[in-house]
Design brief:
Elements: E1 2-3, E2 9-10, H1 22-28, H2 33-38, H3 40-53, E3 68-71, H4 75-87, E4 95-98, E5 112-117, H5 123-134, E6 138-143, H6 148-155, E7 160-162, H7 173-186, H8 194-210, H9 221-229, E8 232-238, H10 241-256, E9 263-266, H11 267-270, H12 284-288, E10 306-313, H13 327-344, E11 348-352, H14 358-379, H15 388-396
Parallel strand pairs: 3-4, 3-5, 5-6, 6-7, 8-9, 8-10, 10-11
Antiparallel strand pairs: 1-2
Helix pairs in contact: 3-7, 3-8, 4-7, 4-10, 5-6, 8-14, 9-14, 10-14
The protein binds 6-O-phosphono-beta-D-mannopyranose.
Amino acid sequence: MIDGTAGVSGRRDADEALLDNPAALAEHDPGDMLRHTASAGAQVRESAALAAEANLAVLADDGRPRAVVIAGIGTAGRTGDVLATVAGPRCPVPIIGHRSAGVPGWVGAADVVIAVSASGRSPEALGAAEAAHRRGARLVAVGAPDSQLQSVAERARAPFIPVPRRAPARASLWALTVPVLLAARSLGLVKVNEADLAETAARLDADADRCRSAAESFVNPAKSLALGLAGSIPIVWGSSPLATVAARRFGDTLSANARYPVVTGALGEAGRGRVGLLDGVFGGLAEGERDIFADPSDDDDGEGTRLRLVLLRDGGLNAEDDTDEPLAVEERRADAVQTLAERRGVRCDVVTAEGGSALERLASLIAVPDFASIYLALAHGLDPMAVPAITEMKELSNQ
Ligand SMILES: O=P(O)(O)OC[C@H]1O[C@@H](O)[C@@H](O)[C@@H](O)[C@@H]1O
């Protein structure tokens, strides 16, 4: 173990054996991130029940809004991306994520603002809720009970969904997402039904079981994904808009939990630009020099750093109409990038979506990578929960 300059302990080389030692895993995970992550299915059920108690029906009183703004930062902000992809390209109303304090200048009485904050105190969500109230926009707030956000919502007489706090916010993605979806359902913008929620929760439970710490690497998809990524620069591309939301989420968790630099995005866009990374110094050029018989652990000077591609494939449900790219195009592109990686010797992991609804498919692309980011942190001896750099950044910038 070595100490970084800020006193953070860890090891540069991943300790593979540690992943198959449940006692050591628990010891390196004092905040219980594995358990929080395994609660994803329970979060869906709990948040659905809490949202049912809030009076979301009032949102529909003034009819369909002109636009919906999802205001929040970090994981809270990601809920807006989830809503946009679940609503799909035929959603009649624009869904806009807003990640800085306040609301866009055009927001007014015709619009709905959903302010989201796990702690209920991010300046971004609070600023947005206050601005929405001032401008007469309909407001919904989602966040910790008895928080500043709840006070703002009460002052505005706006529905508030109290989501119990699980530190850190990134372990609450599902708890925060479900109320956002149900608020949008009250507005007639998404068709998420009770069966979709139940099946999504069941899928998250089943994936948590496959990824549990007692399941060894060779049968545990999250541990094997983590070990494949160890020591690499991950590139995570999504084959469809839905898969791209999952790719960006993996970027969040790989950075925050495992402290890995990561490139994420949509394969469609990457194919016109970033796919060139596969030819570069960390891609084909590094692989060309690789001695296939060498022990990978000899690479301790960082010179052998290589890309590792993670392809999240949707295989989709999209209706064949002019609002969506045809599924066949997405599939051909995903096959093509796998061939490209293979030709250059760049290793590639593929996670394929499963499930009948958009929400369940998204869950199936998020669950295993969420666990993988934690196992990767643990293999490096890093506490996946505590991120001193985020705290230090907040202190230095006085936020
Ligand atoms: O959801 P809230 O509490 O507003 O936090 C929003 C974001 O704040 C940042 O400082 C980090 O902690 C993120 O992990 C978090 O998602």
